[in-house]
Amino acid sequence: MEFASQGKKELVPLASAYGRFLAEDLIADHDVPSFDRSPYDGFAIRAEDSASASAEQPISFEVVGEIGAGFVFSEQVECGQAVRIMTGAQIPQGCNAVVMLELTRQYEENGKNYMEIKRPYQKGDNISHQGEDMKKGTALVKKGTYINPGISALLATFGYHEVPVIQKPVIGVLATGSELLDANEPLQPGKIRNSNAFMILSQIERAGGEARYFGKFSDDLDTCISAVKAALSEVDFLITTGGVSVGDYDYLPEIYQQLGAEVLFNKIAMRPGSVTTVAQLNNQLLFGLSGNPSACYVGFELFVRPIIRRFAWNESPHLRREKAILGEDFKKPNPFTRFVRATLSFNEGQLVVSPSGFNKSSAVSSLAEANAFIVLPGGTRGYEKGMIVDVLLLEDLQGSEWPWHEIVPSYR
Amino acid sequence: MEFASQGKKELVPLASAYGRFLAEDLIADHDVPSFDRSPYDGFAIRAEDSASASAEQPISFEVVGEIGAGFVFSEQVECGQAVRIMTGAQIPQGCNAVVMLELTRQYEENGKNYMEIKRPYQKGDNISHQGEDMKKGTALVKKGTYINPGISALLATFGYHEVPVIQKPVIGVLATGSELLDANEPLQPGKIRNSNAFMILSQIERAGGEARYFGKFSDDLDTCISAVKAALSEVDFLITTGGVSVGDYDYLPEIYQQLGAEVLFNKIAMRPGSVTTVAQLNNQLLFGLSGNPSACYVGFELFVRPIIRRFAWNESPHLRREKAILGEDFKKPNPFTRFVRATLSFNEGQLVVSPSGFNKSSAVSSLAEANAFIVLPGGTRGYEKGMIVDVLLLEDLQGSEWPWHEIVPSYR
After folding, report:
1. What is the annotated signal peptide range for this record (chains A, B) (predicted)?
2. Concatenated DSSP letters for B356-372?
3. pLDDT by residue (tens digit) across A28-61?
């Protein structure tokens, strides 16, 4: 997080702002509503004129005009007068209460219009008061907040025809591995199709970034180095997959060295994803994720996602952490903290979490149903169904403020 | 739901499939992995050759070759031989176990390479078996499922360079109301900026539709009718906001009549949104949502969202319904079922729900933080903090199968 960069502002049309992150605090620049208005169709009156109204002795008002939403009644309403008023219209000068249409009786007499009521009204009855929804000057939404439909409504209300949002970080993806086939190639003995790259493109999009795929590289070291260099010049962050384990054919350490990148860490006490590497070159982050799909997926969510959300100035960039009931046994202890791909459900409002399928770092199938990770701290004990565990939510928009590096001590 | 239409298939590049809905069942057309492979860097051996190995009497194997991921070892491995193997590489013919690199000692003798182990291995040790992740023929993901990053990985694995997805429904939005200003217009007495349209554009996008904004209409009836006619010819569904209450200036009933549209319902026993109207014309649905922001928002999520998700062939098109603890009192009973804009939180994994702010049908501010509705069934009793209530989740991808029309009887 020390090397996390933060994005600049750009303006987008309001209709395109959904799902982006706000680049400025949103502050109410006027009261909402900006005038006293009627929440109902009815008649605006002076409440004091209704004081003696009753079923036995109704009071009649002369209807001196009518006013639709968006219009202003230009005259002063006097004693004994009423104005027919539509939902949303501004209360006429002199009036201080609204009578609902269905509680009146209307009639004509001598060419004049009247309406009659059978009970008294208090000053302020049935009026939506200026500022009751939002007061001028109120800080409504913070910079770095995800723009949801409600915030779109606020932006329109306060005149943001164009919306200042944070530019999306451009994140490059480059797959390495001599075993990789493109998605459109037929299977060949010993080879697999490159699923990681497309998975990560989707993860980048889910996190709020803009993905750029640079293809797969399985050739010689020099080709890889050129590819990484070229990619770095076009992106904010670069992700490589594969080529980071201890095998003889792994290029990544060599690439980092030749680029002069500083490796921040290249081994993490966790499963899967222990070979996740993060390096920096002139403050630009390079993520070396595992070639194993599940390890790659977990590495992205734990290490890349927070960097994307921080880029967006979001104040809770990490995966949201909550408690849940473990839905299945994990009896075999593991010295390393595990992040198990899992599916959340609710039992009468109580979060329950169960592994989403085949649980190996190489697994692809379990990722399709995963919407959470179960966090099982490493140690000498196993875990049993019914225990309370930490979960990290993958489809949540809110996130957590807790930094990843604090989770480990909290379990010790 | 009887008038819900269902979308057709289109092909999109795999990199653009995230967030779309799958147009075909996804079935594994081969085993994954498609061959026995090594999960580690190490040596492939014949387990039977290691039977007598011990710390005191290590067994040596001649290393007859090496094999990287993506390559195939072409020879048969014989008694006493081993092959250096990288993570992900196919197990050579004749071998049936893998020894991890770090558990071996390697040496050279007479120009030949050897490695030595100190314990026996069983047939199958450290092998990722063909089909262990997914078996050929397994139905993995159903038509109508939201494509998340894990499903992107599956699609790549099974060679979907192009992905059959459901076309997005095009949903028109047309605002009516003489009080409306555009977002870029300065405030004027008695007028408000049109926030509903931009809110709905975002809600459409969140639900998975493609929004088309036709502007606001506050002129005469004929202009409105032409606008609605023109819009209908371009869209799958049309939403209008405003103009649907009982006021004198409301055009919508007249528009429906002149178009020859059949009004399916125009009043609902709920708050807010009681004046929500749905009509159909030649099986094309027209939604008349309230001009009040909160009522409009609720009407969209309860009535339009399910139609969008059903269009995508999704099997759980309604908002996901769960139970939660009510975080605040609602002591005043209401004869109508209320849908209160609310914010969810977790207390040790237990869902808690509290109203997200100012709670009137005209409110805009409460929508910014809303990620759920609290459902408070109508009746003669109020609700107290701590009670268990139904909630409908707004940011969930899973949805519910329950049809909206069944919620009401279940509370009676």
Report:
1. none
2. -S--STT-SHHHHT--E
3. 999 999 999 999 999 999 999 999 999 999 999 9
CB of B252 closer than 8 Å to CB of B277: yes
Chain A residue numbers with beta carbons less than 8 Å from the beta carbon of B148 are 202, 206, 368, 371, 395
pLDDT at B245 over 60: no
What amino acid occupies position B72?
Answer: V
Count other C-beta atoms under 10 Å from residue A124's C-beta. Answer: 12
Q: Best residue in A147, A323, A364 to probe B by mutation, most B CBs within 10 Å?
A: A364
Q: Which of B396, B391, B398 is nearest to B372 (CA)?
A: B391
B372 touches chain A (CB under 8 A): no
Q: What angle do CA A8, A200, A219 make, to 5 degrees?
A: 105
With an 8 Å Cβ cutoff, are B149 and A362 in contact? no
C-alpha to C-alpha distances, B331 to B322, B340, B381, nearest whole angstrom: 22, 14, 8
Burial class (CB in 10 A: 0-12, 13-18, 19+), B103: middle
> Tokens representing A224?
């890889």
Is the Cβ–Cβ distance between A202 and B18 less than 8 Å? yes
Give CA–CA dist B263/B272, Å, rounded: 20
Domains of chain B with CATH codes = 9-33+141-166 (3.90.105.10), 42-117 (2.170.190.11), 170-311 (3.40.980.10), 320-410 (2.40.340.10)
Which tokens sit at A4? 């996390």
Q: Which residues of A214-228 are buried (b: 16+ CB within 10 A; e: fewer)?
A: bebbbeeeeebbebb
Separation CA B209–CA B307 (nearest Å): 10
pLDDT tens track for B365-399: 999 999 999 999 999 999 999 999 999 999 999 99
Cα–Cα dist A351/B68, whole Å: 44
